[in-house]
Each structure stands twice: as structure tokens, then as C-alpha cells.
């Protein structure tokens, strides 16, 4: 069997599924602009990249992305025939013209994020102004997704909250299944230790507050975390803060003054640099050890896509303090398997962090329940079974979209 994954920057969310299928005898190909990780036994169909000019309209850009992907698919079909199935991320337009190339091939879409001008990530900040130009840009971004969904046979969204953003008219096509969390790699370890850049070694015996994001920016609540951290540091002379994440911008906007959020927040809060340890972007093995030695792990997010980091921290038995926002409602029941806090309220966050530090044994059941949440709902093998089952049913002509 032959499958083609379509993603702007592979392997993305398809990494586990692609490796699983390759290991079970499938011929797996990736159609992408760039491959961030090389996977053994998986072929790369690299499409030509033409960076958009600053003045390129969103609609035109997504159309060009879709045409390039379609051209690459067409060349593949002419050379070796159609694949048995195509599974692609619909966010950038890459799947817009897939049906025009493959009229009889089953097509699955990955539905990560549908844009809204209010009520989700855009307009969440009370100081944000959402002018007409921004609203029209968001609608044009969604055009590519709707054009793709219209001809797909089925689609998958990783969480119920993310699915709920898409128009109701397409919900019958969209099943819910996460990419999966490796609970054997991400697991509690009471003997874990982490060596800081200065050589100091931290363990579960230390009072450690952890924070992880791809990049340190407002979308993931970094300013709120920093204001809470300085309040807690003044009250508790023994607490240490361990922060993993880069200084770029993954979501949101670059600061107009060009400064890094880390530098801005250190200057603004006056937090003692000896109390906070910025690790940058670290390896996955190091991340796991960070989760394992954490006294309380902070995960704040705009109403946006749910991060793997929150789920992996829970799999490691971390005591999660998460923002009271839509994505976190999918995984956290307050005081059952973690704690929820107002995204903007740094005083409340500082109080909750202090509460966790002082009540480690009393709150042990939250750690256990967090682990159970991931084992029951997000365990990698179960997620792979569900995705593989859908793919096999579709190849066999038995499409069951919403029942993923």
C-alpha cells in the first residue's frame, strides 16, 4: 500500500503515524516544502518553494501553495500511478487541488486550527484591535481549508475543542483523534535529575517550577508566567524556575522594537537571574527530565492549538497548572487532574504555584490522575490503531469519517 502525507514542514503531526505505517510495510512518502526530521525508509517529495512577497494576498499565496502541491502529485501519478491514499494538513492550501489530481483516491485532511476574528486566539487579548484588514485575512486563510474540506472524504482533528472551531456543516466529516503520546518514553520517574547549564543538579526533592513552550511569547502566557514567578520568588527563597523554549516567535507577532520577550520580561520584572534558568530549545530527552523533576508545571495558552508539551508533562505525572481556556478544558478538570487558572491573572497563578509547592503529598492524586488521562485518551498505540483503522477502511472503500 502507498500513502502520501502532505505537510508544509514535515513530518509535523504525522511523525508517529508515518513511522508506524512504514514499519508495517507501507510505502510512505512526504510531500513538503521542507523535512525537519529525516525518517528512515520514508521518501521525500520536495515541492518547489517560492517565498511570498510581503504584498502577496493571502488568497493568492494559498492558491500558489495548492498548485505547487498539485503539480508535484501529478508528476508522481504520471510516473508511478496514484497512491492508495493521501493524508494532508489543510491549513496552508496544500490539499486544495488534490481531488483534481486524484479523482478516485481517498483523501483525508488534518484539521488543526480554524481561524475566528473573536472568541479564540485573535481578539483574546482585551487590548487587541481586530481591524477589517485582519478579519478579511483570517477569512481568506479559511478559504483554503473550506475548499479542501469540501472534497475530502474524511478529516481528523486532534481534540474536540479544535474540531469545534470548524463550521458545523463539516463536523460530520471530522473525527477526533490525537496524534498520540508515548507513555513509555514520557513517564514518572521519582529518581530523575536534571543538570542545569551552571552545573547544578535538580531533583524532585527541590522546589522547581517549570515552564515549556516552543518559543517564549504571549500566545503561551510567558508574560503572565514571569510576573507570577517574581511574586513567588519574593515569598519563597528556595524556589527555582526552569524554562525551556526559544527566543523566536512561533505564533503571534514579532515585537515592534525587535526585542526578545525573555529580555523584556527580565527587565520588567527584575527577577533575580540566579533564580531562573533559561534552557533554550532542548532535546526531547531533556524535556522529559524537566517534567519529571517538576514540583509544578505551568501551561498557559491563548484559545489556540493544544501543545504536545502539556500532554507529555501530564504523562510524566507533572502537577499541571493550566490556563482556564478552551484547549485546556479538553484535558484538565480543575482539582481532579490538575489546576486551572485565569490566563491573565499573575497573582492567582503565583498563589497556585505556592499552594502546589506546600502541598506536594496532598496533591499527589492530581499527578496520578493526569497520567491516567493520557493513558486512557492519548496513549500513542491506541491513537495509531484508530488512525490506521480509518486509513485501512478508506482504502477498502468503507469510509467512516466522523467515527474516527
Task: Please give a structural write-up.
The structure is a single chain. The protein is α/β, with parallel strands linked by helices. The protein folds into 2 domains: 2-180 and 379-403, 3-Layer(aba) Sandwich (Rossmann fold); 193-377, Glycogen Phosphorylase B (Rossmann fold, 3-Layer(aba) Sandwich), CATH 3.40.50. 37% of the residues lie in helices and 17% in strands. A 7-stranded parallel beta sheet has the order 5-3-1-6-7-8-9, sandwiched between helices. Strands 14-13-12-15-16-17 form a 6-stranded parallel beta sheet, with helices on both faces. A two-stranded parallel sheet has the order 2-4. Helix 4 (132-151) links the parallel strand 7 and strand 8. Helix 1 (15-23) crosses helix 13 (380-395) and helix 6 packs parallel to helix 7. It is globular. The model has no long low-confidence stretch (mean pLDDT 94). GO terms for molecular function: glycosyltransferase activity. It holds the Pfam family Glycos_transf_1. InterPro entries: Glyco_trans_1, Glyco_trans_4. Keywords: Transferase.
